[in-house]
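input
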Amino acid sequence: MKTLLKFLVPTFLLWRLFLFLPIFIGYNFLPFRDGFQFATIWYRTALYSPVSHFLIYPWANFDGVHYLSIAGNGYIDEGRFFPFFPILINIVSEIFGTGASFGLIQFFVGFSIANTAFFLSLIVFYKLVRMDYKKNIAFWAIIYITLFPTSFFFASIYSESLFLLLLLLTFYFLRLKKWLWASIFALFLTITRFIGIAVIPILFYEFFLQEKPFNGKAILKAWPFFLTPLGIIGYSIFNYQMWGDYFYFIHSQGNLLNNRTVDSIVFPLQTLFRYFKILTSVPLVQYEWWIALLELGIFVFSAIILYLGWRKKIKTSYLLFSIFGFLIPSLTGTFSGLPRYVIILFPLFITLALIEKKIFKVMYISISTIVLFILLMFFSRGYFVA
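output
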């Protein structure tokens, strides 16, 4: 553990400090995007110090605004944002005195939860990787996830870091055959992000794989797994009570004007053709062209890495979850948001760490760091990234 912390603490701190640089550059050289003032908390509340500092408030841009709104005011029409993260913000804020919605306490509580969850995620990630691989593979996996182009969402007031922590804890306790603990973390997973439901079949798969001999006595040990769906079931009931629709958290995704289809499946080939049309018809100077290129690039890159993960015999349960996590958003007719959605697919980074060629390591670190810098710079100035 001491060796891990000697590596992890400076790595995390350097990464965290580095993330302020693109915000600084963006503030000084990139005008805030006109018409996107709603993407910041200042659309909902008056300026106040120190959150009004240009290095601080961008960490709540876009979805962060909604999570803070739910934490302070409860749900109004934001059912697509799952409840565990804002509930956690609200509970912890109560310890310090809740204060006003979008206020100082809730902002820094949300910010602290996200960053703490990511740091803890890296510890659990290391321990999980070490169950199958050598120390250097675990270290490289951590480097790759921290330098991924959209890793800054782990530091923002978003639910990604909390989801990653719960996901890794679920798999960690599954590997230890601690079925109850795995089920508890999986339950919270299902009310943190929709994709959390993909872990439910994985629980049973791992159980059947590990419980030998598989008999009546073994089946009785699986009872905790039946607790896991209670999270999403409870949230569905809440959706019905609030909006008269058990699946409002899905259907409301269709109201975002991003061409996402929520009532049918769109095969990726159709979506690829749509992106080809975008890239050949939208002017190169238009910001949306570059975002379409990013989304398409991440789709292709992730698909290739998942295939390599299968070739390199990454644990089947890891790959199954990653395939679910990759395909579910990809079957909605758009890759919008995919650059952010894939950052919780930790097997991608294990696979990357297994690629031994030095040229690949240099290229990944160089290209990914540059893209990370650019994306965070634009994100901080009101440009949608993912």
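quick obs: The chain has a mean pLDDT of 94.
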